[in-house]
Amino acid sequence: MRYEKTDALDLINKAVSALDAQIKSRDIKIHTELKGATGHLWVSPVDIEQVMINVLSNAVKFTPEGGD
Q1: Can you tell me the distance from the alpha carbon of 7 to that of 22, in angstroms, rounded to the nearest whole number?
Q2: Which residues have a Cβ under 8 Å from the Cβ of 23 and sit 6 or more positions away?
Q3: Which of the two ends of the chain, N or C, has the fewest CB atoms closer than 10 A to its terminal CB?
Q4: What confidence score (pLDDT) does residue 1 get?
Q5: What are the distances in angstroms from CA 5 to CA 10, 39, 45, 67?
Q6: What digits encode the pLDDT tens for the residues 15-58?
Q7: CA-to-CA distance for 19 and 13, rounded, in angstroms?
Q8: Does this model's pTM top 0.85?
């Protein structure tokens, strides 16, 4: 596993972008409030991005159409 200094906000935005088509097709609204999330993480960016995509994918799957 390769750890890199990674921008937390960038990881979240990439995960949301990866699911953009699913989010739009279900007319779901995603709200992000990232107070203080301007720091960096020492993580494997590929692995943590996949974790975020999995979490958001589950949120999209179980949110009713037109939901928040």
Answers
A1: 24
A2: 16, 30, 60
A3: N
A4: 78
A5: 12, 10, 8, 34
A6: 999 999 999 999 999 888 777 656 788 899 889 889 999 999 99
A7: 10
A8: no
